[in-house]
C-alpha cells in the first residue's frame, strides 16, 4: 500500500511538470528516505519523503530546487521558472522553494 501512495506522489509530480520539460528523473530509497530527483532544463527539483508512507499518515518532507546557469542572470531566470512548479501530494499542491547557493565558496571563508 505504501508503494502505491509513493507512486501516486511521484506520478503527480511528473504530471504537474510538462513532459517536454523533463529530461530525467531518478527515484531512490535508502535508510528510510525516498528521494525523487527531477532534472529539467531550468534546474533540478528534489523531494525527500519517508519511504514508509501509509494512507492517513501525517508526514514531513523536504522539497528543494537548484537552478542551472553559469551566470547570476541565467540562474535568476531559471530560478523564476522553477518557482512556477508545484509538487502535488495527496491532492495538495506545494510550492517549490528555490535557493541559490555559491557553487564554490572562497576558501578564506571556510572555518574548520
Walkthrough of the structure:
The chain is an alpha+beta fold and 112 residues long. Helices cover 24% and strands 35% of the residues. It contains 2 helices and 6 strands, in the order αββββαββ. The chain has helices spanning 2-16, 72-83; strands spanning 22-30, 33-40, 43-50, 62-67, 86-89, 92-95. Strands 1-2-3-4 form a 4-stranded antiparallel beta sheet. The radius of gyration is 16 Å and the shape is elongated. The termini are far apart. The relative contact order is 0.17. Residues 107-112 have low confidence and may be disordered.
Describe how the helices and strands are arranged.
Blueprint: H1 2-16, E1 22-30, E2 33-40, E3 43-50, E4 62-67, H2 72-83, E5 86-89, E6 92-95
Antiparallel strand pairs: 1-2, 2-3, 3-4, 5-6
Biggest β-sheet: strands ordered side by side in the sheet: 1-2-3-4
Which structural class best describes the helix and strand composition?
alpha+beta
Mean pLDDT: 76
Cα(first) to Cα(last) distance is 46 Å
Work out the number of β strands.
6
**Largest beta-sheet details:** 4 strands, antiparallel
Number of helices: 2
Q: Spans with pLDDT under 50 lasting ≥5 residues?
A: 107-112
Q: Can you give me a brief rundown of this structure?
A:
This protein is 24% helix and 35% strand. It is α+β, with helices and mostly antiparallel strands and 112 residues long. A hairpin with a 2-residue loop joins strand 5 (86-89) and strand 6.
